[in-house]
C-alpha cells in the first residue's frame, strides 16, 4: 500500500487530521526533520488503538511521536505512518495519593495537577518539556529524581499482541533508557504513586526548578535538551565546555554558549549539521579524556544516503570515528 492509499483509508475512519508528506520540522522542538509520508493525529485512545492495530496487521511501518522534544529526525524524513499523541490520551485522574494519566498529557501539566492536589513527587517534571509517554520511554528525570521513582503501572499496546499492563519493573527503567526502546511498546496510560505534602513547599520547589532552568539552559532557542548522556560520574556539559566547544557551529547548528550539552538550531539547521557537530564533539572529548559520549537524543529515520539510522552507522558512516584527526 502506498502513502496516498494509506492516507485515504485513514481519512475514511474520521479519526482526526491525516496529512501526507508532512514536514516533521513542524512537530519537533529542534525544528528539524524531513517529511513523514503520512502524519495522523488521532482524536481519542480508541482511534489511536484502531490505527495501531491496522498498521500492525498490514505490516505498515509506523512511529509514535509525543511532543518531539527528544528526537533528531533525519533530513530524509520518515517513510512511515507517524502517529501523534498530541490530541489523544489527555486524561488525568487523581485518586488519593495516585495519579492516573494518559500518555499524551504534558509533563508540566501533570506536575501542576499534582501540586493542586497537594501531592509531592512530581515537582522535578515541571520543567521537562514533552509528554508522559515520551518521559516513560526515556525515563526522563531532573533535579535528582526520575520517572522510575514514581511510576507504579503502565498500560501499553504491544505489536502483535494488543493491550497489556506492565509493572514498573517490567518497564526496565535505567538512566534515560527503558525496555520501551527494545520491545516497541506504545504507552497509553500510567499510574503514579505520590505522597501528600505541603502545597506551598511543593510550589516553592517547582518555582526553584523553573528558575534554575531559565538560568542554565538556552530557553527560547530551538533544541532537543541534552544531546549526550552524562558519562557517570562526570557531566557531558562539563566535558564539552572544557574542550572549548561552546559556540562551535555547523551551518545553523550551534553548541549553546549557555549550556555546552545543548545544540541549538539558530534557524535553518539540518539534521546533518547537528550530526556533524555531535561527531566533532564526541571525537574531541574522546581524544582528550578517552570517554565515549553516548547520545541521549534519539535519531529518527534513515541515516545519510538512506542507510539504516543507527548511531553506529551515523557515527562511522563518513569515517567520523574517534581516531584523530577529528572532523
Ligand atoms: C529544553 C529541553 C529540556 C529538556 N530537559 C530534560 C530534562 O531535564 N530531563 C529529561 O529527561 N529530558 C529532558 N528533555 C528531553 C525531553 O523533554 C524528554 O525526553 C521528554 O520526556 C520527551 O517527551 P516527548 O513527548 O517530547 O517525546 P518525543 O521526543 O516525541 O519521543 C521520544 C521517544 O519516545 C517515543 N514515544 C513518545 N511517546 C510515546 C508513547 N506514548 N509510547 C511509546 N513511545 C513513545 C518516541 O517514539 C521517541 O522514541 C528536554 C528537552 C528539551 C527540548
TrEMBL record:
<dbReference type="GO" id="GO:0008762">
    <property type="term" value="F:UDP-N-acetylmuramate dehydrogenase activity"/>
</dbReference>
<comment type="similarity">
    <text>Belongs to the MurB family.</text>
</comment>
<keyword id="KW-0961">Cell wall biogenesis/degradation</keyword>
<dbReference type="GO" id="GO:0008360">
    <property type="term" value="P:regulation of cell shape"/>
</dbReference>
<dbReference type="GO" id="GO:0071949">
    <property type="term" value="F:FAD binding"/>
</dbReference>
<dbReference type="InterPro" id="IPR036635">
    <property type="entry name" value="MurB_C_sf"/>
</dbReference>
<feature type="active site">
    <location>
        <position position="176"/>
    </location>
</feature>
<feature type="active site">
    <location>
        <position position="296"/>
    </location>
</feature>
<keyword id="KW-0285">Flavoprotein</keyword>
<dbReference type="GO" id="GO:0051301">
    <property type="term" value="P:cell division"/>
</dbReference>
<dbReference type="Pfam" id="PF01565">
    <property type="entry name" value="FAD_binding_4"/>
</dbReference>
<comment type="function">
    <text>Cell wall formation.</text>
</comment>
<keyword id="KW-0274">FAD</keyword>
<keyword id="KW-0132">Cell division</keyword>
<dbReference type="Pfam" id="PF02873">
    <property type="entry name" value="MurB_C"/>
</dbReference>
<dbReference type="InterPro" id="IPR036318">
    <property type="entry name" value="FAD-bd_PCMH-like_sf"/>
</dbReference>
<dbReference type="GO" id="GO:0005829">
    <property type="term" value="C:cytosol"/>
</dbReference>
<dbReference type="InterPro" id="IPR016169">
    <property type="entry name" value="FAD-bd_PCMH_sub2"/>
</dbReference>
<protein>
    <recommendedName>
        <fullName>UDP-N-acetylenolpyruvoylglucosamine reductase</fullName>
        <ecNumber>1.3.1.98</ecNumber>
    </recommendedName>
</protein>
<keyword id="KW-0131">Cell cycle</keyword>
<dbReference type="InterPro" id="IPR016166">
    <property type="entry name" value="FAD-bd_PCMH"/>
</dbReference>
<keyword id="KW-0560">Oxidoreductase</keyword>
<dbReference type="InterPro" id="IPR006094">
    <property type="entry name" value="Oxid_FAD_bind_N"/>
</dbReference>
<dbReference type="InterPro" id="IPR011601">
    <property type="entry name" value="MurB_C"/>
</dbReference>
<dbReference type="GO" id="GO:0071555">
    <property type="term" value="P:cell wall organization"/>
</dbReference>
<dbReference type="InterPro" id="IPR016167">
    <property type="entry name" value="FAD-bd_PCMH_sub1"/>
</dbReference>
<keyword id="KW-0133">Cell shape</keyword>
<comment type="pathway">
    <text>Cell wall biogenesis; peptidoglycan biosynthesis.</text>
</comment>
<dbReference type="InterPro" id="IPR003170">
    <property type="entry name" value="MurB"/>
</dbReference>
<feature type="domain" description="FAD-binding PCMH-type">
    <location>
        <begin position="31"/>
        <end position="197"/>
    </location>
</feature>
<keyword id="KW-0521">NADP</keyword>
<dbReference type="GO" id="GO:0009252">
    <property type="term" value="P:peptidoglycan biosynthetic process"/>
</dbReference>
<feature type="active site" description="Proton donor">
    <location>
        <position position="226"/>
    </location>
</feature>
<keyword id="KW-0573">Peptidoglycan synthesis</keyword>
<keyword id="KW-0963">Cytoplasm</keyword>
Amino acid at each position: 500500500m502506498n502513502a496516498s492509499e494509506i492516507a485515504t483509508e485513514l481519512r475514511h475512519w474520521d479519526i482526526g487530521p491525516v496529512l501526507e508528506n508532512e514536514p516533521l520540522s513542524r512537530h519537533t522542538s529542534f525544528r528539524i526533520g524531513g517529511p513523514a509520508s503520512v502524519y495522523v493525529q488521532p482524536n481519542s485512545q480508541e482511534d489511536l488503538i484502531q490505527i495501531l492495530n491496522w498498521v500492525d496487521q498490514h505490516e505498515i511501518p509506523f512511529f509514535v511521536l509525543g511532543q518531539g522534544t527528544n528526537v533528531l529526525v533525519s533530513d530524509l524524513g520518515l517513510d512511515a505512518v507517524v502517529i501523534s499523541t498530541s490530541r489523544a490520551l489527555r486524561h488525568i485522574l487523581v485518586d488519593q495519593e495516585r495519579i492516573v494519566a494518559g500518555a499524551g498529557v504534558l509533563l508540566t501539566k501533570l506536575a501542576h495537577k499534582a501540586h493542586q492536589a497537594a501531592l509531592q513527587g512530581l515537582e522535578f517534571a515541571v520543567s521537562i518539556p514533552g509528554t508522559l509517554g515520551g518521559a516513560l520511554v526515556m525515563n526522563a528525570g531532573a533535579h535528582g529524581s526520575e520517572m522510575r521513582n514514581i511510576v507504579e503501572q503502565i498500560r501499553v499496546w504491544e505489536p502483535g499482541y494488543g493491550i497489556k499492563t506492565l509493572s514498573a519493573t517490567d518497564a526496565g527503567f535505567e538512566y534515560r533508557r527503558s525496555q520501551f526502546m527494545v520491545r516497541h511498546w506504545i504507552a497509553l496510560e500510567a499510574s503514579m504513586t505520590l505522597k501528600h505534602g505541603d502545597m506551598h513547599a511543593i510550589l516553592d520547589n517547582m518555582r526553584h526548578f523553573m528558575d534554575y532552568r531559565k538560568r542554565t539552559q538556552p530557553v527560547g532557542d530551538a533544541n532537543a535538551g541534552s544531546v549526550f548522556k552524562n558519562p557517570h560520574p562526570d557531566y557531558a556539559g562539563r566535558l564539552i565546555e572544557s574542550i572549548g566547544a561552546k559556540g562551535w557551529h555547523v551551518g545553523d547548528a550551534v553548541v549553546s554558549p549557555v549550556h555546552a550539552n545543548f545544540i541549538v538550531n539558530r534557524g535553518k539547521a539540518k539534521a546533518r549539521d547537528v550530526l556533524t557537530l555531535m561527531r566533532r564533539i564526541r571525537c574531541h572529548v574522546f581524544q582528550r579524556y578517552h570517554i565515549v559520549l553516548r547520545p541521549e537524543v534519539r535519531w529518527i529515520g534513515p541515516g545519510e544516503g538512506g542507510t539504516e539510522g543507527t548511531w553506529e552507522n551515523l557515527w562511522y558512516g563518513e569515517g567520523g570515528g574517534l581516531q584523530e584527526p577529528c572532523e
